[in-house]
Design goal:
alpha+beta; 166 residues; eight-stranded mixed beta sheet; 36% helix; single chain; 20% strand
Amino acid sequence: MTSHPGPDESLPVGSPAELASARQALLVATRRQVDIRLPRLDDSLYASAEEMAELRRIATAGRGAQIRLLLNDPATALRDGHRLILLMQRLPSVIQVRVPVEEINLGNPSACLLTDGGGYLFQPDAERAQGRAVLADRPGWAPLRQQFDEMWERAERARTLQPLDL
């Protein structure tokens, strides 16, 4: 019999498979709003059928639905045809993408996923399968959310990902 972690218990994140499982658990626990910060969006992140289904569910959750993505290099995701790009372009008022412009933020190697329920996944180095994930931990979530909000305010819209007005 497998036990599922309680809301304030850590999820294992020591391998790529555990990271994917933690991302999925956090997305499932999200009601209407999620914030994601990544230096680079590649096909190993937020691209599985399960992750895409949860992101679509969040994006179409109705009033208050919001997905905010901070990406250092959105052009690469666009060029590589990441599955999330089409969803972004279909729902541009709900899925917003910004690019950090300040050198200190562009040089930040970390990645995070923040849910509206106080859950988070934080990786000090996005290239390494190590970090911390918790389904609900407001005291641990708050400083990550504050840092995300500050970076968001100083970032610019990712114009390369905007749908064409035809």
